Amino acid sequence: MDNEQHQLSTETGEQFEIPEEGSLGLLALGYEGLMLWRAKKKELQMKRQQENNAR
Amino acid sequence: MPARKKKVLLIGWDAADWKFLNPLIDAGLMPTLKGLIEGGAMGRLATLDPPLSPTLWTSIATGKRPYKHGIHGFTEPDPSGEGIRPIYSTNRKVKAIWNILTQHGLKTHIVGWWPSHPAEPINGVMVSNFYQRANKNINEPWEMKSGTVHPSEKADLFAQLRVHPQELTGSHIQPFIPNLEKVNQAKDRRPYNVATTLADCSTIHSAATYILQNEEWDFMAVYYDAIDHFCHGFMKYHPPRREHIPMADYELYKDVVNGGCRFHDMMLARLLELAGEDTTVMLISDHGFHPDHNRPNFIPNEPAGPAIEHSDYGIIVMKGEGIKKDDTIFGASLLDITPTLLHLFGLPVAEDMDGKVLLQAFEDPAEIQTIKSWENIKGNDGRHPEHLAIDKEDAKEELRQLIELGYVEDPGENGAAAIKATLDENNYNLSRAYINGGEWEEGIKILEQLHAENPETPRFAVRLAHAYQTTGQFKNARKIVDHIREVQDRESPQLDILEGTLLLAEQRYKLALDLFQKAEREGGEQPHLQLRIANAYMQLNKLAEAENAIHKALKSDPESERAYFTLGLIHYNSLRYEEALGAFLDAIGLMYAQPTAHYYVGETLAQLGEYEKAIDAFEVCLKLVPSFNAARQRIIQIYETDLEKPGLALKYKADFQQKIQGTITIVSGLPRSGTSMVMQMLEAGGLDIFTDKTREADESNPKGYYEHEAVKGLQRNKQFLDNAIDKTVKVIAHLLPHLPLKFRYRVIFLERDIYEVIASQQKMLLREGKRVKEDVLPLGLIQQYEKTLQDIKKWAKEHPAVEIMYVQHRDIIENPFMQSMLINDFLEGGLAVEKMAASVDRQLYREQNKAASS
Prior knowledge:
B: alpha/beta; 34 helices
């Protein structure tokens, strides 16, 4: 699990993209899953904001 | 007392029940729970009455019944006298497991326990039960109430870990409601209710996982109430669909309960991962929840009415070092959790706790250490100081939250009425707790007061009638039943069943049957009605009809262990032992922890000549209830008589004496053999008499009968004898074999010439205006009495807990002092012998004798 990059990896090391709309799996991970989801939402929000500003 | 370094994780899943978990486990949909079960020991966890979550979870955390721990409901009167407020952790009168562990310096964390607000200053983090619920829109500030987190400096951090229901998306809800897009959410609040429950439990889980990852810990307990909420909201839509559930609702919401369980399995996986392999894990629920044909069709409109949906057994799974693998725990109660936790930490169990250590779950159980009580052990235990002030505004808000959650009714503006209703409700719960703990006298006292103050509240009256009936106070029960009939002013099948049950206890079987049949005609099938009908038929010796009723009971509830047990009794009484054995084994297959069913398996096997197997069955019975001396007695008989191995009976004989729970003095004999006279002598001598004085003195017994109404029902109900320890009870001869073997009995048995006895009985009947054929000698009765006397002598000889003294009626009349001396010797001395002798009115008995024999 990599909090900085808002990414999870599976037991076999595969990267798992955090969906913006969240998932039960993230909630079941507990506070880490929650923090990663919130961070991902924030990141995407900012990205959209930047894109809007750039237009 | 050094504590062994050990990590224990206790997880609470409110309302989890194997009945709806097992199909998911079998289908591979709860893999973590499956792994926990396979690597540990599992079983059912018996709940307590009343089945209210704050009282039950406090019993779990203290090992004590509610009348000891002091939590009796959801609310209490506010100390200011202005209304009511929620129950707080400050209401708990005794130490919880976290207080005891804090005293031993163990790092202890508690999340969401009910009730745990305000959080106690324990040696670790406590997050209270007012942490998770969001009561405002997501755009408004979501404040943390003071006292939610200990230590308070962590409150801001934990505030960030909460999940608001409006933060969730369709992705979170769709696993519960796959056709979410078909719901008109403007009108239908049910999807939002799913979101609220999901957000609440995600909040709890978030806090628990944070603590596991960031705090040192020895003990961690986390309580999730979401399964209970999913069940109360959506079990009605759970498959199979019942006729009254609209198909559209069923299709939309049939997956919610299963979805909730699967989400808990996912959360469990994370908890286990964070706790690590070296942690002992205990997963429990406080009660179960009916997922099947036992689901009620309506919820009673009364406080705690939804509890009707609960079932009596929750779950327990234990896994860890030293815990048996893939094994089953039998006879566990939620009172056993704290004693077992203490044992896991190598700490002594208190003698004032009501539960036991679940030793059968341990591979190599260590010896149980005990102390008298933890309450007197001084030291910082992390409890609040006495009279801790609760913020009034917080209390109001928390009360509103309980109202919104549906736990309490809105008390309205009338503070005085709310206080009265709360006090009544808590007292009602307390009375139920006493009764559930076998403290009938205390429970009845409270119910009597509630009934006197609220004569028109049927549930107080119904419970009081039931308590009277169970304790053999049939006249009092009758008064209450008549009162309910008056107040209700309408026919009610439930009332007919109540009265029928009373008639059954009064041994008026035909009348009982008539009422049960009336209830069946007028109210259709009712829970357990066919069982009652079968019992009435059995008492009337109409075994074919009883069997027919049982088959009806099994048709409506094919998993009724009581029905199979009763069917076994019917076959047993019909001497159909093979079939009886099958039915008893079916009952045990449905619920293993039924000592009486195991006992009857033993009896049936003995009848079939399978003595070794019968001993095995009696052994199981003793394992479940070590004081079940009737089973011990049968093992002794089989070894001595049937297997002719008396040496093997010795151990059981020694155990028999050890398990005796007290001594009761019995005065017995045929009716009119002088038993009242001896009771009078013993009273004069200073013994405590067990009588309710219901049967008043009359011409036949001018000095009184010294009877207790409950004794008449001894065949069916033996519970009242718990109140007769160290007292003297009059028991008519033919009832003696029904005395339970858990007590030691000193029996003074009156012998009198049978012809005199019968003549005296006939005179008595004549005095009562009954028709008697005076000129005919009742030969049948004489033979019957002679057989009763023979049976009693055999019974007394066979039972090691029975010491019997035969006293001749004539000898007492002729020489009362000498007989008083002999009785005093038999009762181990200490009686006022002269007063005993003086109490015998020799003239009276001589006259009666003369009259009887004339």
